[in-house]
Amino acid sequence: MRWFTRPAPSSRVPRKAEVLPSPNIWYYPQAYEIENRAQDVDGEIWQVLAESACWQGKDVLDVGCGDGFHLPRFAEQAKSVLGVEPHEPLVERALLRVKDLASVNVLRGCAQALPVADASVDVVHARTAYFFGPGCDPGLREAERVLRPGGVFAIVDLDVSRAPYGDWMRADLPDYDPVAVERFFAAAGFGCRRVETRWRFDDAEAMKAVLKIEFSAAVAERAIAEVLRANDSRGPVTLPVSYRVHVRRKPTGLVIPLHSASDSSSAAPRIP
Ligand SMILES: C[S@@+](CC[C@H](N)C(=O)[O-])C[C@H]1O[C@@H](n2cnc3c(N)ncnc32)[C@H](O)[C@@H]1O
C-alpha cells in the first residue's frame, strides 16, 4: 500500500496565481534532469540536510518536488515520502519515477495549500521551489501546519551572493536582493548554512544545455565561456555553485516568551 494509512485532505488544483513559473523544468525536463544529476556531486547538501533535518524513519514532504528527482533518495531511509507539485505534467513524471517505490507518493498541490493533514509529517523539504524570500509567508504557514511538533523545515536554495553562479543570476535578476532574502528567513526563525558544492557534467555539451535553460541567452553565453575557460577542453566539466540551507524546527511544546528575572516591569509571563 502506498503512503496513506490515514486520510489526507483532497488535492485541489492550484490556482494560476499561486504557481510560480519554472520555465527550466516545465519546458526542458530532459535538460533539467541533467542539471539535477550534475548538482552537488560531492553530496555536500545531503550532508547538511542529514545533520540538520534527519529523515531516517520519518515522514517526509518535498514541496515543489518537480519531477520527483529527490524523492527516491529520501525514500532510501524515510518511513514515507510525499512529493507535492502544482504542474500536472511534472506530477505525472514524478509518479513514473517512483512507481516501484511503495513508500512514496506524489500529489498535485501547491505550497500555499498543501494537500496534507495537520501535524502529519516530520520533515518538510523544499529545494529551489517557491520559498524564495519575501512573499512566501503563506507557504511558511502551511509548512508549520503540516509539521508535527519537533518537526523540521529545510529550504535549499542557490546562494545568489556568491560567484560565479550568483553573479550570473544577478545579471538576469538585477532587482534580486540576497541580503533582504536572508534577512527575511532569519526574521522568520530560520538558521542558515552556506554550502559550497560542485556541479559536474560529463562534457561541455551537457553543461551548455543546462546553462542555456537557466539564463538569458546573453548571460548563458558569458557563463559558458567562463566555465570553458576554467576547464580542460575535453572530458568532464565542473563548476562551483554555492547554496543556502535554511532550517527551522517546530517547537515541541509551550513557548514561554523571554524575560529578564531582574526586570519587574517585564510584560512577559513568569514561569511559576
Ligand atoms: C526549479 S523547480 C525545482 C524542482 C525540484 N524541487 C527539484 O529540485 O528538482 C521549481 C518547482 O517548483 C514548482 N512550483 C511553482 N510554484 C509552486 C508553488 N506555489 N508551490 C509549490 N511548488 C511550486 C514548479 O512547478 C517547479 O516544479
From TrEMBL:
InterPro entries from the UniProt entry: Diverse_substrate_MTase, Methyltransf_11, SAM-dependent_MTases_sf
**UniProt-listed GO biological process terms:** methylation
Q: Which UniProt keywords apply?
A: Methyltransferase, Transferase
User: Which superkingdom does the taxonomy of this entry point to?
Assistant: Bacteria
Q: Name one GO molecular function term.
A: S-adenosylmethionine-dependent methyltransferase activity
Q: Which positions fall inside the Methyltransferase type domain?
A: 61-155
Membership in a protein family: Belongs to the methyltransferase superfamily.
- Name of the featured protein: Methyltransferase domain-containing protein
